[in-house]
Every structure is written in structure tokens, then in C-alpha cells.
Amino acid sequence: MKPLEHDRKYGELDQVICAYLGQAADDTADERSVALDSYLRQTWPTRPWAIATAEQQLREYAQHPPGRLRLRLGEFYPVPDIGLAEAQIQGWLLLVADHLKKSVEEGDVPPPGTPQTRWEWHARFPELGQLLGGWFSQDMPDEFDGHAAALADYRGTTHPSVVTELVGELHELLALLNDADEADYALAVAELGMEVEPPAPYAMSGWLALIADRLTGFRAQYRPPSAPQQD
Fold first, then answer.
1. Do both 102 and 39 map to the same domain?
2. What residues make up the domain containing 146?
3. What is the mean pLDDT of the chain?
4. pTM attached to this predicted model
């Protein structure tokens, strides 16, 4: 299936389903799951219109499920394994669609808070996830001569505007976890993809603050516009 066609039919459905990966699809008629609350908590402030799109796509998929042949041909979105039997998927999709409809019609929004799922951590801190998962994975010791070298590589290969976004996310995370202990910081960075310890002598919180400070001083070279030519 071509990307444009996929996004038109299943793009927001895919976002909802991805929010459930690694989480229990235990929604009931009266209660939303942790995964669905995570999706709504992150989507309402940034893309509120997408929730209605998700509701429509979920309902349409449930009411017109694909046959095996069309799935094999790649003409439909294959629902990933979310821990439900195949016979349960249709009813669950309709239940989630009902919850999304209620959220839109009644303004039923989860309160702000710390991300509760891996999907939500990455939805809220996308560029920090790129840094920690890409430059501070378990392969970092084989690729770089320490944490400072890895950070320098990120800084030197990333557009300045994206670096600025990362600094903003770092400050947001530090503010969010301001009263938390180091175990909460460790959980956050692990969910965002970090697989190495911070460099000595820093605790995780101090190292994140150090990164923000070092990247704040990074400025792109500015080339002034050429002076207009005289006739």
C-alpha cells in the first residue's frame, strides 16, 4: 500500500494501535485503558482534530474487516499483536472508537501528568528519544570514545533548529521530574531508549542538566546576506 493511501485510511488508527504495544488492551465499557489514556493525553493538546479521525478509522476498520487475501496482498492495515484473540479484535476496536467519541463529545480528557507508557514518552519527547536511543544505546561504547564524543557527534550532525527542540524537551523533562528521585529519571531515559549509564560522577538528573547546558551554548554559524549591488 502506498504511504498516502495508508495515511488516509489508517494513519491515525495506527497511532492508536501503537499506543497499545506492550500494554494491556483492557478497556471496558466504563473505563479506558492506560494505553488509551496515554494516547488521549498526548493528542488532545497537540492534535485534537486527530481524535475524531481515529474514531472514524477505527469504526470503519471494525465494520469492514479485511479478508486474509487482501491482508496478504498488503491492501489493508494488519493490526499488530496487542494480546487479543482474533475474534476479539472487532469488538475491541468498536469499544475504543466509542471511548474516543465520548472523549470528543464530552470533553473527557485525561489530566496532565507524567507519561505512563513507552509510546507516550516518545510522543511527548520525540527528539530526546532520538538522541538517547540513537547515540546512547548499548552500542555507544563501540562507536564513540565516551559520552562527550557521542554528544558532540549528535550536535555536529543535527540541524540547529532540531538541537533547540531537544534543549526544550530536556528542560521540560527536568521540570516534570523536578521532585522525583533518581529511579524515576532512570525509568524515563530507559523508556526513551538509553541503554548506558551516565558518565561518572553524574547522577542521571545531573547529566541531563549538563547536556541541556552544553547544547544551549551551541549556535549555528550565521552568514549575513550579500549587500545589494550598485547600478
1. yes
2. 125-216
3. 89
4. 0.85
